[in-house]
Amino acid sequence: MNSSPRRVLILALAVSLFASSCATDDAGPDGSGNGGAGSESSAGQQSSSAEEDAQAEHDAAVDEARQAREAALAGPGEEHYEQAAGIVAQMSLQQQAGQVLIGEYQGNDVESAAAQIQQLHLGGVILMGHNIPGGTSSVDTEALTGQLQVLAAADPQREVPPILSVDQEGGLVTRVGAPVTEWPTPMAYGAAYAADPERGLRLTRAGHQHMGRDLMDLGFTVSFAPNADVTIGAADPTIGSRSLSGDPEAVGNLAVAGIRGLAEGGLAGSVKHFPGHGSVTDDSHYTLPVQQADLEQLRSRDWVPFAQAVEAGVPMVMMGHIEVPALDPGVPSSLSAVAYEEIRSMGHKGVIVTDAMNMAATYGGGDQAAVSALAAGADLLLMPTSVPGAHAALVEAVESGELPAERLSEAAERVIALVLWQQDLAAGELAAGPDVPMPEILREEDRGNDDGAADLEAFSSAEAADVLLGQAVTVVEGQCEAPLVTDSIQIYGGTEQDRARLAAAAERAGISTGAGPVVTLLGGMTPGTGDVVVALDRPESLASSTAGTKIALYGRTPESFDALLRVLAGEAAPGGLPVSVGEYRQGHSGC
Protein backbone atom coordinates (compact mmCIF):
# COMPACT_ATOMS: atom_id res chain seq x y z
CA MET A 1 0.00 0.00 0.00
CA ASN A 2 1.36 3.43 -0.94
CA SER A 3 1.96 5.90 1.87
CA SER A 4 2.21 9.69 1.86
CA PRO A 5 3.56 12.36 4.23
CA ARG A 6 0.01 13.30 5.10
CA ARG A 7 -0.90 9.73 6.02
CA VAL A 8 2.27 9.38 8.11
CA LEU A 9 1.41 12.63 9.91
CA ILE A 10 -2.15 11.43 10.56
CA LEU A 11 -0.87 8.12 11.92
CA ALA A 12 1.75 9.81 14.12
CA LEU A 13 -0.85 12.21 15.46
CA ALA A 14 -3.21 9.35 16.22
CA VAL A 15 -0.50 7.39 18.02
CA SER A 16 0.46 10.49 20.02
CA LEU A 17 -3.12 11.16 21.01
CA PHE A 18 -3.64 7.53 21.97
CA ALA A 19 -0.47 7.45 24.13
CA SER A 20 -1.43 10.70 25.83
CA SER A 21 -4.92 9.38 26.57
CA CYS A 22 -3.53 6.17 28.01
CA ALA A 23 -1.13 8.06 30.32
CA THR A 24 -3.95 10.26 31.59
CA ASP A 25 -6.33 7.36 32.06
CA ASP A 26 -3.73 5.27 33.91
CA ALA A 27 -3.59 7.92 36.62
CA GLY A 28 -7.28 7.34 37.40
CA PRO A 29 -9.83 9.98 38.36
CA ASP A 30 -8.36 10.22 41.88
CA GLY A 31 -4.69 10.06 40.85
CA SER A 32 -4.42 6.49 42.07
CA GLY A 33 -3.35 5.03 38.81
CA ASN A 34 -6.51 2.95 38.48
CA GLY A 35 -7.90 4.24 35.21
CA GLY A 36 -10.99 2.33 34.01
CA ALA A 37 -11.11 0.10 30.97
CA GLY A 38 -14.09 2.10 29.69
CA SER A 39 -12.07 5.32 29.44
CA GLU A 40 -9.29 3.52 27.51
CA SER A 41 -11.86 2.21 25.04
CA SER A 42 -13.38 5.66 24.62
CA ALA A 43 -10.01 7.25 23.88
CA GLY A 44 -9.20 4.55 21.34
CA GLN A 45 -12.53 5.07 19.58
CA GLN A 46 -11.97 8.84 19.42
CA SER A 47 -8.49 8.33 17.95
CA SER A 48 -9.78 5.86 15.38
CA SER A 49 -12.63 8.19 14.45
CA ALA A 50 -10.26 11.14 13.96
CA GLU A 51 -7.99 9.07 11.73
CA GLU A 52 -10.92 7.80 9.67
CA ASP A 53 -12.30 11.33 9.24
CA ALA A 54 -8.91 12.62 8.15
CA GLN A 55 -8.49 9.74 5.71
CA ALA A 56 -11.97 10.31 4.28
CA GLU A 57 -11.17 14.00 3.79
CA HIS A 58 -7.91 13.09 2.08
CA ASP A 59 -9.57 10.54 -0.21
CA ALA A 60 -12.28 13.04 -1.18
CA ALA A 61 -9.64 15.61 -2.10
CA VAL A 62 -7.78 13.02 -4.19
CA ASP A 63 -10.99 12.07 -6.02
CA GLU A 64 -11.84 15.71 -6.70
CA ALA A 65 -8.38 16.43 -8.11
CA ARG A 66 -8.41 13.29 -10.25
CA GLN A 67 -11.88 13.97 -11.63
CA ALA A 68 -10.92 17.53 -12.58
CA ARG A 69 -7.84 16.27 -14.37
CA GLU A 70 -9.66 13.48 -16.19
CA ALA A 71 -12.45 15.83 -17.29
CA ALA A 72 -9.91 18.22 -18.80
CA LEU A 73 -8.31 15.37 -20.75
CA ALA A 74 -11.56 13.74 -21.88
CA GLY A 75 -12.50 16.26 -24.58
CA PRO A 76 -14.26 19.56 -25.19
CA GLY A 77 -16.28 21.13 -22.38
CA GLU A 78 -19.49 23.09 -22.63
CA GLU A 79 -17.56 26.32 -23.07
CA HIS A 80 -15.88 24.89 -26.18
CA TYR A 81 -19.19 23.81 -27.69
CA GLU A 82 -20.77 27.20 -26.96
CA GLN A 83 -17.86 29.02 -28.55
CA ALA A 84 -17.94 26.66 -31.54
CA ALA A 85 -21.65 27.27 -32.06
CA GLY A 86 -21.01 31.02 -32.21
CA ILE A 87 -18.22 30.57 -34.75
CA VAL A 88 -20.23 28.28 -37.01
CA ALA A 89 -23.22 30.63 -36.92
CA GLN A 90 -21.06 33.23 -38.67
CA MET A 91 -19.73 30.81 -41.31
CA SER A 92 -20.90 30.58 -44.89
CA LEU A 93 -22.11 27.29 -46.35
CA GLN A 94 -18.79 26.93 -48.20
CA GLN A 95 -16.84 27.43 -44.98
CA GLN A 96 -18.91 24.88 -43.09
CA ALA A 97 -18.50 22.34 -45.91
CA GLY A 98 -14.72 22.76 -45.76
CA GLN A 99 -14.59 22.53 -41.97
CA VAL A 100 -15.68 18.87 -42.02
CA LEU A 101 -12.98 17.74 -44.49
CA ILE A 102 -9.44 16.47 -43.82
CA GLY A 103 -7.40 16.56 -47.01
CA GLU A 104 -4.05 15.15 -48.08
CA TYR A 105 -1.33 16.26 -50.44
CA GLN A 106 1.49 14.79 -52.46
CA GLY A 107 5.06 14.66 -51.25
CA ASN A 108 6.40 17.87 -49.79
CA ASP A 109 4.17 20.15 -51.87
CA VAL A 110 3.07 22.00 -48.78
CA GLU A 111 2.30 25.24 -50.62
CA SER A 112 -0.48 23.65 -52.68
CA ALA A 113 -1.88 22.07 -49.51
CA ALA A 114 -1.88 25.46 -47.77
CA ALA A 115 -3.64 27.03 -50.78
CA GLN A 116 -6.33 24.35 -50.67
CA ILE A 117 -6.85 24.88 -46.94
CA GLN A 118 -7.45 28.55 -47.62
CA GLN A 119 -9.54 28.20 -50.78
CA LEU A 120 -11.82 25.42 -49.51
CA HIS A 121 -11.71 26.36 -45.79
CA LEU A 122 -10.59 22.83 -44.95
CA GLY A 123 -10.84 21.51 -41.43
CA GLY A 124 -7.28 20.29 -41.83
CA VAL A 125 -4.86 17.87 -43.46
CA ILE A 126 -3.24 14.55 -42.69
CA LEU A 127 0.42 13.79 -43.29
CA MET A 128 1.22 10.31 -44.55
CA GLY A 129 4.62 8.67 -44.93
CA HIS A 130 5.32 10.26 -48.31
CA ASN A 131 4.79 13.73 -46.79
CA ILE A 132 7.52 13.34 -44.17
CA PRO A 133 10.72 15.08 -45.31
CA GLY A 134 13.66 12.71 -45.21
CA GLY A 135 11.43 9.61 -44.99
CA THR A 136 9.66 7.90 -42.13
CA SER A 137 12.86 6.48 -40.59
CA SER A 138 15.27 9.39 -41.17
CA VAL A 139 13.08 12.41 -40.54
CA ASP A 140 14.29 15.93 -41.26
CA THR A 141 12.57 17.34 -38.18
CA GLU A 142 13.47 20.94 -38.98
CA ALA A 143 11.92 20.69 -42.45
CA LEU A 144 8.86 18.89 -41.04
CA THR A 145 8.31 21.58 -38.43
CA GLY A 146 8.62 24.19 -41.16
CA GLN A 147 5.98 22.44 -43.28
CA LEU A 148 3.58 22.24 -40.37
CA GLN A 149 4.08 25.93 -39.62
CA VAL A 150 3.18 26.79 -43.22
CA LEU A 151 0.02 24.68 -42.99
CA ALA A 152 -0.95 26.15 -39.62
CA ALA A 153 -0.73 29.67 -41.04
CA ALA A 154 -2.46 28.82 -44.33
CA ASP A 155 -5.49 31.01 -43.64
CA PRO A 156 -4.73 33.71 -41.04
CA GLN A 157 -8.28 35.09 -41.28
CA ARG A 158 -9.97 31.99 -39.87
CA GLU A 159 -10.93 31.86 -36.19
CA VAL A 160 -9.58 28.38 -35.56
CA PRO A 161 -6.41 26.88 -37.07
CA PRO A 162 -6.52 23.79 -39.29
CA ILE A 163 -6.14 20.32 -37.82
CA LEU A 164 -2.65 18.95 -38.52
CA SER A 165 -3.02 15.21 -38.15
CA VAL A 166 -1.04 12.00 -38.49
CA ASP A 167 -1.47 8.25 -38.01
CA GLN A 168 1.05 7.48 -35.28
CA GLU A 169 0.29 4.27 -33.38
CA GLY A 170 3.79 2.89 -32.89
CA GLY A 171 5.15 -0.24 -34.51
CA LEU A 172 3.96 -0.89 -38.05
CA VAL A 173 1.99 2.37 -38.24
CA THR A 174 4.71 4.93 -37.61
CA ARG A 175 4.72 7.92 -39.94
CA VAL A 176 7.29 9.95 -37.99
CA GLY A 177 10.31 7.88 -37.02
CA ALA A 178 13.94 8.46 -36.02
CA PRO A 179 15.37 10.73 -34.77
CA VAL A 180 11.95 11.15 -33.11
CA THR A 181 11.59 8.32 -30.61
CA GLU A 182 10.15 5.20 -32.20
CA TRP A 183 7.63 3.19 -30.21
CA PRO A 184 6.96 -0.55 -30.27
CA THR A 185 3.74 -2.11 -31.48
CA PRO A 186 0.66 -1.34 -29.38
CA MET A 187 0.61 -5.00 -28.39
CA ALA A 188 3.66 -4.28 -26.22
CA TYR A 189 1.37 -2.41 -23.84
CA GLY A 190 -0.92 -5.44 -23.78
CA ALA A 191 2.02 -7.68 -22.88
CA ALA A 192 2.94 -5.48 -19.92
CA TYR A 193 -0.74 -5.38 -18.90
CA ALA A 194 -1.08 -9.18 -19.10
CA ALA A 195 1.67 -9.51 -16.51
CA ASP A 196 0.62 -6.61 -14.27
CA PRO A 197 -2.52 -4.62 -15.22
CA GLU A 198 -1.75 -1.58 -13.06
CA ARG A 199 1.80 -1.33 -14.33
CA GLY A 200 0.60 -1.89 -17.90
CA LEU A 201 -1.85 1.00 -17.67
CA ARG A 202 0.78 3.35 -16.25
CA LEU A 203 3.21 2.41 -19.02
CA THR A 204 0.54 2.89 -21.68
CA ARG A 205 -0.43 6.31 -20.45
CA ALA A 206 3.18 7.44 -20.05
CA GLY A 207 4.22 6.07 -23.44
CA HIS A 208 1.40 7.87 -25.24
CA GLN A 209 2.13 11.05 -23.28
CA HIS A 210 5.70 11.05 -24.58
CA MET A 211 4.53 10.22 -28.09
CA GLY A 212 1.96 13.03 -27.99
CA ARG A 213 4.44 15.57 -26.66
CA ASP A 214 7.01 14.70 -29.34
CA LEU A 215 4.39 15.14 -32.08
CA MET A 216 3.01 18.36 -30.58
CA ASP A 217 6.51 19.82 -30.40
CA LEU A 218 6.80 19.24 -34.15
CA GLY A 219 3.49 21.01 -34.77
CA PHE A 220 0.90 18.22 -34.98
CA THR A 221 -2.44 18.62 -33.21
CA VAL A 222 -4.16 15.25 -33.79
CA SER A 223 -3.05 11.63 -33.94
CA PHE A 224 -5.53 9.02 -35.08
CA ALA A 225 -4.73 6.56 -32.28
CA PRO A 226 -5.06 4.39 -30.25
CA ASN A 227 -6.67 1.26 -31.66
CA ALA A 228 -9.60 -0.17 -29.75
CA ASP A 229 -9.83 -3.22 -32.03
CA VAL A 230 -9.89 -6.59 -30.28
CA THR A 231 -7.76 -8.98 -32.32
CA ILE A 232 -8.81 -12.59 -32.80
CA GLY A 233 -5.18 -13.56 -33.33
CA ALA A 234 -3.76 -15.42 -36.30
CA ALA A 235 -7.00 -15.15 -38.33
CA ASP A 236 -6.84 -11.34 -38.15
CA PRO A 237 -4.86 -10.25 -41.24
CA THR A 238 -5.05 -6.48 -40.81
CA ILE A 239 -4.78 -5.33 -37.20
CA GLY A 240 -2.58 -7.98 -35.58
CA SER A 241 0.04 -6.32 -33.39
CA ARG A 242 -1.70 -2.97 -33.88
CA SER A 243 -4.24 -4.31 -31.38
CA LEU A 244 -3.53 -3.81 -27.71
CA SER A 245 -4.80 -7.27 -26.78
CA GLY A 246 -7.19 -10.08 -27.54
CA ASP A 247 -9.08 -9.40 -24.30
CA PRO A 248 -11.92 -6.86 -24.73
CA GLU A 249 -11.70 -5.45 -21.22
CA ALA A 250 -7.92 -5.10 -21.44
CA VAL A 251 -8.23 -3.31 -24.78
CA GLY A 252 -10.78 -0.91 -23.31
CA ASN A 253 -8.66 -0.09 -20.27
CA LEU A 254 -5.51 0.33 -22.35
CA ALA A 255 -7.24 2.41 -25.04
CA VAL A 256 -8.49 4.86 -22.41
CA ALA A 257 -4.99 5.04 -20.90
CA GLY A 258 -3.53 5.66 -24.36
CA ILE A 259 -5.87 8.44 -25.38
CA ARG A 260 -5.45 10.08 -21.96
CA GLY A 261 -1.69 9.96 -22.44
CA LEU A 262 -1.94 11.62 -25.85
CA ALA A 263 -4.02 14.39 -24.29
CA GLU A 264 -1.47 14.84 -21.51
CA GLY A 265 1.07 15.29 -24.30
CA GLY A 266 -1.13 17.97 -25.92
CA LEU A 267 -2.75 15.97 -28.74
CA ALA A 268 -6.31 14.99 -29.55
CA GLY A 269 -6.55 11.26 -30.16
CA SER A 270 -9.21 8.99 -31.63
CA VAL A 271 -10.17 5.45 -30.60
CA LYS A 272 -10.60 3.31 -33.72
CA HIS A 273 -11.98 1.47 -35.77
CA PHE A 274 -15.63 0.99 -34.79
CA PRO A 275 -17.35 -1.50 -35.22
CA GLY A 276 -14.06 -3.32 -34.67
CA HIS A 277 -11.52 -4.41 -37.30
CA GLY A 278 -9.75 -7.04 -35.22
CA SER A 279 -12.28 -9.84 -35.76
CA VAL A 280 -12.86 -9.64 -39.51
CA THR A 281 -10.75 -11.64 -41.95
CA ASP A 282 -10.51 -9.12 -44.82
CA ASP A 283 -8.64 -5.82 -45.11
CA SER A 284 -10.81 -2.74 -45.66
CA HIS A 285 -7.99 -1.09 -47.60
CA TYR A 286 -8.71 -3.52 -50.43
CA THR A 287 -12.28 -4.75 -50.00
CA LEU A 288 -15.32 -4.45 -47.76
CA PRO A 289 -14.97 -6.81 -44.78
CA VAL A 290 -18.16 -8.41 -43.53
CA GLN A 291 -18.61 -8.84 -39.78
CA GLN A 292 -20.78 -11.95 -39.35
CA ALA A 293 -21.19 -11.76 -35.58
CA ASP A 294 -24.60 -10.96 -34.15
CA LEU A 295 -25.27 -7.94 -31.96
CA GLU A 296 -25.01 -9.90 -28.71
CA GLN A 297 -21.56 -11.18 -29.69
CA LEU A 298 -20.43 -7.73 -30.78
CA ARG A 299 -21.61 -6.07 -27.58
CA SER A 300 -19.77 -8.64 -25.50
CA ARG A 301 -16.52 -8.47 -27.50
CA ASP A 302 -15.74 -5.91 -30.21
CA TRP A 303 -17.80 -3.07 -28.78
CA VAL A 304 -16.69 -3.44 -25.17
CA PRO A 305 -13.59 -1.21 -25.58
CA PHE A 306 -15.56 1.49 -27.40
CA ALA A 307 -18.24 1.50 -24.71
CA GLN A 308 -15.53 1.76 -22.02
CA ALA A 309 -13.83 4.61 -23.85
CA VAL A 310 -17.05 6.53 -24.43
CA GLU A 311 -18.06 6.11 -20.79
CA ALA A 312 -14.68 7.47 -19.69
CA GLY A 313 -14.95 10.33 -22.19
CA VAL A 314 -12.92 10.63 -25.39
CA PRO A 315 -12.71 13.50 -27.88
CA MET A 316 -13.08 11.41 -31.02
CA VAL A 317 -14.09 7.97 -32.32
CA MET A 318 -13.14 6.69 -35.76
CA MET A 319 -15.72 4.81 -37.83
CA GLY A 320 -14.28 1.99 -39.92
CA HIS A 321 -15.41 0.59 -43.25
CA ILE A 322 -17.00 -2.73 -42.27
CA GLU A 323 -20.35 -4.22 -43.21
CA VAL A 324 -22.31 -5.53 -40.24
CA PRO A 325 -25.39 -7.39 -41.53
CA ALA A 326 -26.83 -7.49 -38.01
CA LEU A 327 -26.84 -3.68 -38.09
CA ASP A 328 -27.26 -2.62 -41.72
CA PRO A 329 -26.93 -5.30 -44.43
CA GLY A 330 -24.92 -4.32 -47.50
CA VAL A 331 -23.79 -0.93 -46.17
CA PRO A 332 -20.29 -0.01 -44.95
CA SER A 333 -20.48 1.19 -41.34
CA SER A 334 -18.95 4.52 -42.43
CA LEU A 335 -22.07 5.17 -44.52
CA SER A 336 -24.59 3.62 -42.12
CA ALA A 337 -26.80 5.79 -39.91
CA VAL A 338 -27.46 2.76 -37.70
CA ALA A 339 -23.72 2.35 -37.01
CA TYR A 340 -23.31 6.02 -36.05
CA GLU A 341 -26.37 5.78 -33.82
CA GLU A 342 -24.78 2.82 -32.03
CA ILE A 343 -21.85 5.02 -30.99
CA ARG A 344 -24.15 7.87 -29.99
CA SER A 345 -26.28 5.48 -27.94
CA MET A 346 -23.16 4.67 -25.89
CA GLY A 347 -23.12 8.34 -24.90
CA HIS A 348 -20.47 9.81 -27.21
CA LYS A 349 -20.96 13.56 -27.68
CA GLY A 350 -17.79 14.39 -29.57
CA VAL A 351 -16.48 13.99 -33.10
CA ILE A 352 -16.94 10.83 -35.15
CA VAL A 353 -14.37 10.75 -37.94
CA THR A 354 -14.45 8.32 -40.84
CA ASP A 355 -11.55 6.12 -41.73
CA ALA A 356 -9.90 7.22 -44.99
CA MET A 357 -12.64 7.68 -47.59
CA ASN A 358 -10.31 6.68 -50.43
CA MET A 359 -10.16 3.06 -49.27
CA ALA A 360 -11.71 0.34 -51.40
CA ALA A 361 -14.29 -0.58 -48.75
CA THR A 362 -16.18 2.68 -49.44
CA TYR A 363 -16.62 1.64 -53.08
CA GLY A 364 -13.98 4.08 -54.23
CA GLY A 365 -14.95 6.86 -51.84
CA GLY A 366 -16.39 9.10 -54.54
CA ASP A 367 -17.91 12.53 -54.02
CA GLN A 368 -21.33 11.14 -53.14
CA ALA A 369 -19.79 9.00 -50.40
CA ALA A 370 -18.89 12.21 -48.57
CA VAL A 371 -22.52 13.31 -48.62
CA SER A 372 -23.73 9.86 -47.55
CA ALA A 373 -21.27 9.66 -44.65
CA LEU A 374 -22.16 13.09 -43.32
CA ALA A 375 -25.89 12.40 -43.69
CA ALA A 376 -25.42 9.12 -41.82
CA GLY A 377 -23.79 10.84 -38.86
CA ALA A 378 -20.10 11.46 -39.56
CA ASP A 379 -18.66 14.78 -38.40
CA LEU A 380 -15.24 14.68 -40.02
CA LEU A 381 -14.47 13.11 -43.41
CA LEU A 382 -10.92 11.82 -43.70
CA MET A 383 -9.13 11.82 -47.06
CA PRO A 384 -11.94 11.93 -49.63
CA THR A 385 -10.83 10.75 -53.06
CA SER A 386 -11.22 14.31 -54.33
CA VAL A 387 -11.30 17.03 -51.70
CA PRO A 388 -12.62 19.68 -54.13
CA GLY A 389 -15.20 17.18 -55.40
CA ALA A 390 -16.33 16.29 -51.88
CA HIS A 391 -16.56 19.97 -50.95
CA ALA A 392 -18.67 20.77 -54.02
CA ALA A 393 -20.90 17.75 -53.38
CA LEU A 394 -21.58 18.81 -49.78
CA VAL A 395 -22.47 22.37 -50.82
CA GLU A 396 -24.76 21.13 -53.59
CA ALA A 397 -26.41 18.59 -51.26
CA VAL A 398 -27.29 21.29 -48.73
CA GLU A 399 -28.52 23.67 -51.41
CA SER A 400 -30.74 20.98 -52.91
CA GLY A 401 -32.11 19.87 -49.54
CA GLU A 402 -30.59 16.38 -49.83
CA LEU A 403 -28.41 17.10 -46.77
CA PRO A 404 -30.05 19.09 -43.96
CA ALA A 405 -28.16 22.31 -43.24
CA GLU A 406 -28.51 21.57 -39.54
CA ARG A 407 -26.57 18.29 -39.95
CA LEU A 408 -23.65 20.11 -41.58
CA SER A 409 -23.66 22.83 -38.91
CA GLU A 410 -23.76 20.24 -36.13
CA ALA A 411 -20.74 18.44 -37.59
CA ALA A 412 -18.80 21.69 -38.04
CA GLU A 413 -19.52 22.69 -34.44
CA ARG A 414 -18.18 19.40 -33.10
CA VAL A 415 -15.01 19.70 -35.18
CA ILE A 416 -14.37 23.29 -34.09
CA ALA A 417 -15.05 22.43 -30.45
CA LEU A 418 -12.40 19.69 -30.77
CA VAL A 419 -9.89 22.22 -32.17
CA LEU A 420 -10.64 24.76 -29.44
CA TRP A 421 -10.18 22.13 -26.75
CA GLN A 422 -6.87 20.93 -28.19
CA GLN A 423 -5.62 24.50 -28.36
CA ASP A 424 -6.48 25.11 -24.71
CA LEU A 425 -4.96 21.76 -23.73
CA ALA A 426 -1.68 22.48 -25.53
CA ALA A 427 -1.55 26.02 -24.12
CA GLY A 428 -1.99 24.85 -20.52
CA GLU A 429 -5.37 26.54 -20.13
CA LEU A 430 -7.10 23.50 -18.65
CA ALA A 431 -6.68 21.44 -15.47
CA ALA A 432 -4.29 19.12 -17.32
CA GLY A 433 -2.00 19.17 -20.33
CA PRO A 434 1.68 19.11 -21.27
CA ASP A 435 2.66 22.13 -19.17
CA VAL A 436 0.20 21.67 -16.32
CA PRO A 437 1.85 19.97 -13.32
CA MET A 438 0.03 17.16 -11.63
CA PRO A 439 -1.48 18.32 -8.33
CA GLU A 440 0.74 17.43 -5.39
CA ILE A 441 -2.03 15.46 -3.75
CA LEU A 442 -2.04 13.10 -6.78
CA ARG A 443 1.74 12.89 -6.80
CA GLU A 444 1.56 11.78 -3.18
CA GLU A 445 -0.62 8.88 -4.23
CA ASP A 446 2.03 7.74 -6.70
CA ARG A 447 5.04 8.06 -4.42
CA GLY A 448 6.46 4.78 -3.34
CA ASN A 449 5.15 3.01 -6.45
CA ASP A 450 8.03 0.77 -7.40
CA ASP A 451 6.38 -1.04 -10.31
CA GLY A 452 8.85 -0.05 -13.02
CA ALA A 453 6.52 2.65 -14.37
CA ALA A 454 6.74 5.41 -11.78
CA ASP A 455 7.77 8.94 -12.75
CA LEU A 456 8.06 8.10 -16.46
CA GLU A 457 6.89 11.59 -17.39
CA ALA A 458 10.24 12.85 -16.06
CA PHE A 459 12.17 10.51 -18.37
CA SER A 460 13.18 11.23 -21.95
CA SER A 461 11.03 9.55 -24.60
CA ALA A 462 13.81 7.09 -25.40
CA GLU A 463 14.23 6.20 -21.70
CA ALA A 464 10.48 5.67 -21.34
CA ALA A 465 10.43 3.45 -24.44
CA ASP A 466 13.28 1.39 -22.97
CA VAL A 467 11.34 0.88 -19.73
CA LEU A 468 8.25 -0.20 -21.68
CA LEU A 469 10.14 -2.78 -23.75
CA GLY A 470 11.82 -4.12 -20.64
CA GLN A 471 8.40 -4.79 -19.11
CA ALA A 472 6.80 -6.19 -22.29
CA VAL A 473 9.29 -8.73 -23.66
CA THR A 474 7.90 -12.24 -23.15
CA VAL A 475 9.62 -15.61 -23.03
CA VAL A 476 6.98 -17.89 -24.51
CA GLU A 477 9.09 -21.01 -24.25
CA GLY A 478 12.58 -21.65 -22.91
CA GLN A 479 14.75 -20.90 -19.91
CA CYS A 480 14.16 -17.78 -17.86
CA GLU A 481 16.73 -15.60 -16.12
CA ALA A 482 19.54 -17.71 -17.49
CA PRO A 483 22.11 -16.77 -20.15
CA LEU A 484 20.76 -17.91 -23.54
CA VAL A 485 23.86 -16.85 -25.51
CA THR A 486 27.53 -16.45 -24.70
CA ASP A 487 29.92 -13.98 -26.28
CA SER A 488 28.74 -14.21 -29.89
CA ILE A 489 25.55 -14.76 -31.90
CA GLN A 490 24.50 -15.37 -35.50
CA ILE A 491 21.62 -13.23 -36.80
CA TYR A 492 19.11 -14.41 -39.41
CA GLY A 493 15.69 -13.33 -40.64
CA GLY A 494 14.01 -9.95 -40.34
CA THR A 495 14.80 -7.00 -42.58
CA GLU A 496 18.21 -5.51 -43.22
CA GLN A 497 17.40 -2.78 -40.70
CA ASP A 498 16.27 -5.36 -38.12
CA ARG A 499 19.53 -7.27 -38.42
CA ALA A 500 21.59 -4.09 -38.28
CA ARG A 501 19.78 -2.91 -35.18
CA LEU A 502 20.21 -6.25 -33.42
CA ALA A 503 23.91 -6.27 -34.32
CA ALA A 504 24.26 -2.75 -32.90
CA ALA A 505 22.47 -3.78 -29.71
CA ALA A 506 24.74 -6.82 -29.43
CA GLU A 507 27.80 -4.60 -29.76
CA ARG A 508 26.47 -2.31 -27.03
CA ALA A 509 26.05 -5.39 -24.85
CA GLY A 510 29.59 -6.61 -25.55
CA ILE A 511 28.50 -9.50 -27.78
CA SER A 512 30.02 -10.10 -31.21
CA THR A 513 28.19 -11.40 -34.29
CA GLY A 514 28.99 -14.03 -36.90
CA ALA A 515 29.35 -17.14 -34.74
CA GLY A 516 27.58 -18.89 -31.89
CA PRO A 517 23.85 -19.53 -31.26
CA VAL A 518 21.48 -18.64 -34.10
CA VAL A 519 18.97 -15.87 -33.34
CA THR A 520 16.22 -15.78 -35.98
CA LEU A 521 13.99 -12.72 -36.31
CA LEU A 522 10.39 -13.15 -37.46
CA GLY A 523 8.59 -10.19 -38.99
CA GLY A 524 5.27 -11.72 -39.97
CA MET A 525 3.35 -14.96 -39.67
CA THR A 526 5.96 -17.25 -41.25
CA PRO A 527 7.51 -19.57 -38.66
CA GLY A 528 11.27 -19.81 -38.30
CA THR A 529 13.86 -21.95 -36.62
CA GLY A 530 17.15 -21.47 -34.82
CA ASP A 531 18.42 -21.63 -31.27
CA VAL A 532 16.36 -18.57 -30.37
CA VAL A 533 13.39 -17.40 -32.45
CA VAL A 534 12.13 -13.86 -31.85
CA ALA A 535 8.75 -12.56 -33.06
CA LEU A 536 9.22 -8.85 -33.72
CA ASP A 537 5.62 -7.78 -34.29
CA ARG A 538 2.81 -10.23 -33.60
CA PRO A 539 3.71 -13.36 -31.62
CA GLU A 540 1.40 -15.91 -33.29
CA SER A 541 4.13 -17.14 -35.66
CA LEU A 542 5.92 -18.63 -32.66
CA ALA A 543 3.25 -21.35 -32.43
CA SER A 544 4.75 -23.24 -35.41
CA SER A 545 8.39 -22.64 -34.60
CA THR A 546 10.56 -25.60 -33.59
CA ALA A 547 13.10 -23.51 -31.67
CA GLY A 548 13.85 -24.36 -28.06
CA THR A 549 13.60 -20.72 -27.04
CA LYS A 550 10.75 -18.52 -28.29
CA ILE A 551 10.56 -14.84 -27.42
CA ALA A 552 7.90 -12.25 -28.26
CA LEU A 553 9.45 -8.77 -28.58
CA TYR A 554 6.57 -6.61 -29.95
CA GLY A 555 8.82 -4.15 -31.71
CA ARG A 556 11.74 -3.37 -34.02
CA THR A 557 13.06 -0.23 -32.35
CA PRO A 558 16.62 0.14 -31.02
CA GLU A 559 15.14 -0.11 -27.51
CA SER A 560 13.42 -3.37 -28.52
CA PHE A 561 16.71 -5.00 -29.43
CA ASP A 562 18.40 -3.67 -26.29
CA ALA A 563 15.62 -5.33 -24.26
CA LEU A 564 16.12 -8.56 -26.21
CA LEU A 565 19.85 -8.58 -25.51
CA ARG A 566 19.22 -8.12 -21.80
CA VAL A 567 16.97 -11.20 -21.79
CA LEU A 568 19.48 -13.20 -23.86
CA ALA A 569 22.09 -12.27 -21.25
CA GLY A 570 19.93 -13.65 -18.44
CA GLU A 571 17.76 -10.79 -17.22
CA ALA A 572 14.06 -11.28 -16.44
CA ALA A 573 11.37 -11.11 -19.15
CA PRO A 574 8.32 -9.80 -17.26
CA GLY A 575 5.73 -9.69 -20.08
CA GLY A 576 2.79 -12.02 -20.70
CA LEU A 577 1.10 -12.95 -23.98
CA PRO A 578 -1.62 -10.44 -24.91
CA VAL A 579 -3.12 -12.96 -27.33
CA SER A 580 -3.20 -16.74 -27.55
CA VAL A 581 -0.29 -18.37 -29.37
CA GLY A 582 -1.00 -21.97 -30.30
CA GLU A 583 -1.38 -23.99 -27.10
CA TYR A 584 -0.32 -21.02 -25.00
CA ARG A 585 -3.27 -19.01 -23.78
CA GLN A 586 -3.49 -15.29 -23.34
CA GLY A 587 -1.55 -14.17 -20.26
CA HIS A 588 0.98 -17.00 -20.56
CA SER A 589 4.61 -16.44 -19.67
CA GLY A 590 7.32 -19.06 -19.68
CA CYS A 591 8.90 -17.27 -16.74
Automatic annotation (TrEMBL):
Region (Disordered): 23-66
Enzyme Commission (EC) number: 3.2.1.52
Primary enzyme class: hydrolase
Endpoints of the signal sequence: 1-23
The reaction(s) this protein catalyses: Hydrolysis of terminal non-reducing N-acetyl-D-hexosamine residues in N-acetyl-beta-D-hexosaminides
A Pfam entry, by short name: Glyco_hydro_3
Domain Glycoside hydrolase family 3 N-terminal: 105-417
Assigned keywords, A-Z: Glycosidase, Hydrolase, Signal
Compositionally biased intervals (Low complexity): 39-49
Biased composition (Basic and acidic residues): 55-66
Record family assignment: Belongs to the glycosyl hydrolase 3 family.
Protein name, entry field: beta-N-acetylhexosaminidase
